[in-house]
Design a protein that fits this description.
The complex is a heterodimer of chains A (about 160) and B (about 100). Chain A has helices spanning about 25-35, 40-65, 105-110, 125-135; strands at about 5-20, 70-85, 90-100, 135-140, 145-155. Chain A has about 160 residues and is of the alpha+beta class. In chain A, a hairpin with a 5-residue loop joins β2 (about 70-85) and β3. The longest helix of chain A is centred in the N-terminal third of the chain and has 22 residues, at about 40-65. Chain B is of the alpha/beta class. Chain B has a single domain (about 1-95), classed as Transcription Regulator spoIIAA. Chain B has helices spanning about 20-35, 55-70, 80-90; strands at about 1-5, 10-20, 40-55, 75-80. In chain B, strands 1-2-3-4 form a four-stranded mixed β-sheet. In chain B, a hairpin with a 3-residue loop joins β1 and β2 (about 10-20). In chain B, α1 (about 20-35) packs parallel to α2. The chains are: A alpha+beta (about 160), B alpha/beta (about 100).
């Protein structure tokens, strides 16, 4: 029988930034600095950095195209998942939300190499990076209403926070 | 940032720092400025100085490969380690890595 998981938020932060490309580096460094409380491996930190960079770049390039500048809200959480039969697992949770143009077809957008921005030399691998470097990825979107990305990763840490 | 060595036949671009969407445009235009004036047989993108890379780096590689393909040149990747190598392999570009 599968045991139930209870999740507790141990720490969190919220960051709201304008969708300027200069903020791509700021966002990934801020989120990875917060994640460092969990004493992650270098590989885990790099995975988180790349996933955040992709999600924020999508907001800059696609959600608010051209000269449009809108808000990007980032929430990062350190969670402890308790299962009845185990010690708690540390899970790093990230939610990135924009109020931009939205995605018409999420499955198509997630297809590797698909891009609506070929002239900008976008590789069409943003969602593929998020999906392969994080454990879970959930995308919800509404045309004209924006997009929300939720990602999480179980971190193999030396000790529970 | 990128430092370019051009011997005519071979061009090496030492890419330094982060390759993300914000920085890729500058790196791209610096390399393309060289490719406009010369048609090297080989372009080597050296990743030794790269501290971070996301899929913008893949766009940069594929875009330059397309330019080189246009005049029959070859593109190779050198010194891609750690996360840059992981993303390059994920994108199926292992064949461009110089052994």
């Amino acid at each position: 029988m599968k045991s139930k998981t209870k999740s507790i938020i141990k720490n969190q932060f919220r960051l709201v930034i304008p969708s300027r490309s200069q903020n791509e580096a700021f966002a990934r460094v801020a989120v990875s600095a917060f994640a460092s409380q969990l004493d992650p491996t270098i590989e885990e930190i790099n995975d988180i950095k790349a996933a955040v960079s992709e999600a924020v770049t999508n907001c800059v390039v696609h959600a608010y195209p051209g000269d449009t500048v809108g808000q990007i809200e980032i929430i990062a959480r350190i969670m402890s998942d308790y299962r009845a039969d185990n010690l708690p697992d540390n899970v790093f949770y990230i939610r990135i939300r924009d109020k931009g143009c939205g995605i018409a077809d999420i499955e198509q957008a997630k297809t590797p190499l698909f891009t609506t921005c070929a002239e900008g030399e976008r590789a069409g691998l943003g969602f593929a990076v998020m999906e392969s470097f994080m454990d879970k990825l959930k995308v919800s979107s509404k045309i004209g209403g924006g997009t929300t990305i939720i990602m999480s990763k179980r971190l193999v840490t030396k000790q529970s926070v | 940032m990128v430092e370019i060595k051009n011997t005519g036949e071979h061009v090496t671009a030492d890419i330094k720092g982060d390759i993300d969407h914000h920085n890729a445009a500058n790196i791209r235009s610096e390399i393309d400025a060289v490719l406009e004036n010369s048609t090297p047989r080989v372009l080597i993108l050296d990743f030794a100085g790269v501290k971070f890379m996301d899929s913008s780096g893949i766009g940069l590689i594929l875009g330059r490969k397309r330019v080189l393909d246009g005049f029959g040149g070859k593109l190779f990747i050198k010194n891609a380690v750690g996360h840059a190598e992981k993303i390059i392999k994920m994108a199926g570009l292992s064949g461009l890595i110089l052994k």
